[in-house]
Fold this protein.
Amino acid sequence: MTKKITIQGLVQGVGFRPFIYLLAKEMDIKGTVSNHNNGVIIYAALSQEECKIFTDRILKEHPQVATIHKIEVEEIENNLYFEDFEIIKSNSESEGITQVAADIAVCPDCMEDRDKQEYRLSYPFINCTHCGPRFSIIKDLPYDRASTTMAAFEMCAECKKEYNNIYDRRFHAQPIACNQCGPVYYTTYKDIEYKDYSEILFLTTHLINKGKVIAVKGIGGYHLICDATNEEAVKNLRKIKHRDTKPFAVMFKDAKKAAEYVYINNPEERNLTSWRRPIVLLKQYKQLASCVNPGMNTLGCMLPYMPIHYDWFEQINSPALVMTSGNLSDLPIAITYEEAERQFENKVELILHHNRDIHNRVDDSVMHICGEQSCLIRRSRGYVPEPFFADINVEGLLAFGAEKVNTFALGKADTIIQSQYIGDLKNWETLEFYKESLERFQHLFRFTPTQLICDLHPDYMSSREAERTALRNNLPLLKIQHHHAHAAACMLEYGLDEPVIAIIWDGTGLGDDNKAWGGEFFLCDRKEYKRLSQLEYIPMPGGDKASEEPWRMAVSYLYHLGLKIPKDFIDRIGAIKVNTLITMIEKGINTPYTSGAGRLFDAFASILGLCDISTRQAEAPVLLEQAAIDNFEDRYPIDISKNPVTTGTLFKGVLNDLQKSTDIGLIAAKIHNTLAFLILEKSKQYLKETNTTKVIISGGCFQNKRLTEQLQILFSEEGIPLYIPSKIPCNDSGIAVGQITIAAARNIK
């Protein structure tokens, strides 16, 4: 009996068809396998028992990078005759789509081939069906060479032979290339052109060793690179990037070398060495150059994922390289020769290009481990465009996301496809990148929107773009409250479709009362939410300026709570500035109100003298977290009975400790312990009152590893299920997924 077997998931560009072919040959199965835009389809002559064994083995033995979402088997009425098993031409016959592979770090087998294959000796763009560029080069589906930026390179006879050999690891590896026919690096230095890779490697290594900054084109964009142990080099890089204190990520040769500088536990090493190769935030015990991560005890670490990275570490003197996104200020990462030359000319010592076009720009992904759980902070290279599977129909839904750390998302059948990290939509270039990516995702995934979703805030650029699109295409637009979207994204990730207690803490999001929310306790499901309580409203003098200057929130909290502002604080900030701010609060001049937990962390960071002026987003809360010592359980008194929650006793405790010259690290720890206790006790109260059983936390404040790990321990001790965003970032990057989740739930009649 002929069976049609449809396999959906990440099954293209990962050696899946050769795997099916070899398995079929081993089992003496006759039939065909082919790529379709909605998956891989097998036609085979099989009995019921043979089909069961065949599909079970596919599920158990598929290639490491592949993921299978669904296998469907149907009988074909007219039996087909097959002489053998073969791979046949790809087909595109519907608007359905299969998964597109994320970019994959170069594999060990390919690194070995660089030492023994004559035509690939030291070749820097080597790849196979198990590794290499994928999303960054794809233009269309099905995933064939003609639909990628590799179409510009005609395969040589050797590559073509491998490409067509079913038993070869490079069978139908679309980016296949070698020294004879593939992409190459090139640069000009001191009016001399360099195209020979060994000369380029020698030159770039020499410059790195001399403490120079260079720009290099990678998989998803350019990087700016220098020796991570050279103070002057890193200082120069800060000047180039206009980046005062924000930490740089570094690349080590391997996990063993990284372990000489940072603590690495098993889950951290597992993620650090995975084929996705994200930046993993690790606790540092030995310093590189001090200006790599000033004021921090954590270090963003990654390992090589391109051959040139490995080649550098064979020759440079340093144990680590700073590897930061190749862009200036808040611009998107550069991907073209023109962008790189325009941004970096006369700023860096050398710009190294290659001639394989990047179609989709992708930054490095960032994550950390909370307890044993992987938590993504920035989801991009190595993860995008891997979808999230929904337990609800999301077809036609297009979510525009938030304003900061933006991503958008679209719904296809039962999958939500989230974009790569876009960034903050506050300048023209990033907005253009956003709109360009929106168009490309809709084309690539054969997507036609039927409903648009955006944030409640009318001034977000994403909301404005949604309104323009709705008007232009006569489409319905649904506006979703910011913090409900945070909650819904976490609910989708864990398949929760019931009322839960949701604690959503972040900097800001527009609330139903037109005030800035951000310290919320909800009872919610996917459709609706009820605000049970929140942190008390506090004046935010200067509006958005207060988030950039934490001292303003320190003054506001202390004045609002009727507490005396410490003399050393007034001396540091200036009496005139403090008094002017108090006058603004008293007269209500440009002083909106906020319940944002982010502003609470800001206030404490300033009161403790850790950060009065922020040079980057969330700098003050991060420095407060960094200051807090470990393994210290004392806390301040706080009244959990009031609604909204008041923090007066907490601030009194902090001021008393400051007066007694208590160590800042102890005070910061007690603040964290108090807030963790508050969240636990309020959760217990609301679980009892509402007869719910589960608690979720989300929002940017829970990027705070110390606070989140405390909550994991506290909730575990109480036996309360606590759900923390893992695959979907808890910051505003996850908003778009939550927007789609809510819209889909509300669409059910």
The CA atoms of residues 149 and 357 lie 6 Å apart. The domain at 534-693 is CATH 3.30.420.40 (Nucleotidyltransferase; domain 5). The radius of gyration is 27 Å. The mean pLDDT is 95.
